[in-house]
């Protein structure tokens, strides 16, 4: 009598089905974890760049510029891009709104997230699909 070596078709199908069930349960959790880590990193970078922008504005007001008494919005990338590079950021500042020399609204885009920070402590993070977190 000859001994058969190997697996039967039913054993292979059951094994593949179990692996598929385990993967369907674990992959979404792992993907959410990586998204949260990326979002936290992007938010920290935006906060750092915002501090650099405020420091830049403070230096301008100390040097005698009268911009501290104005309500201004800066969207000029020629002004904003060097600040991002100096802060070693990977994103792009969309807009900065100053009110009485302090940042009122700050919008920064990095890693598919659009991050809006304001002085009131409100933080809004939007991803590429404009979902709130």
Describe the structure.
The chain is of the alpha+beta class and 133 residues long. It has helices at residues 9-62, 77-86; strands at 71-74, 92-99, 102-110, 113-118, 123-127. A five-stranded antiparallel beta sheet has the order 1-2-3-4-5. The protein starts with 8 loop residues before the first helix and ends in a 6-residue tail after the last strand.
Topology:
Elements: H1 9-62, E1 71-74, H2 77-86, E2 92-99, E3 102-110, E4 113-118, E5 123-127
Antiparallel strand pairs: 1-2, 2-3, 3-4, 4-5
Helix pairs in contact: 1-2
How much helix is in the residues? 40-55%
Quick check: average pLDDT? 75
Low-pLDDT segments, ≥5 res: 127-133
Distance from first to last alpha carbon: 66 Å
Which secondary-structure class do the elements indicate?
alpha+beta
Write down how many β-strands occur, each being a DSSP E stretch of 2 or more residues: 5
Tell me the overall shape: rod-shaped
Number of helices: 2
Q: β content, as a range?
A: 15-25%
**C-alpha-based Rg, rounded:** 25 Å
Q: How would you characterize the largest beta sheet?
A: 5 strands, antiparallel
Quick structural overview:
The protein is of the alpha+beta class and 133 residues long.
List keywords for this structure.
about 130 residues, alpha+beta, five-stranded antiparallel beta sheet, rod-shaped
């Amino acid at each position: 009598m000859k001994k058969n070596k190997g697996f039967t078709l039913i054993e292979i199908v059951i094994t593949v089905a179990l692996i598929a069930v385990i993967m369907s349960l674990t992959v979404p959790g792992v993907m959410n974890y990586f998204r949260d880590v990326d979002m936290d990193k992007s938010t920290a970078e935006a906060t750092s760049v915002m501090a650099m922008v405020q420091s830049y504005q403070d230096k301008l007001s100390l040097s005698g510029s009268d911009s501290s008494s104005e309500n201004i919005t800066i969207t000029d990338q020629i002004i904003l891009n060097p600040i991002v590079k100096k802060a070693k950021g990977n994103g792009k500042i969309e807009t900065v709104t100053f009110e009485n020399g302090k940042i009122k609204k700050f919008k920064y885009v990095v890693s598919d997230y659009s991050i809006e920070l304001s002085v009131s402590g409100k933080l809004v993070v939007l991803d590429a699909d404009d979902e709130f977190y």
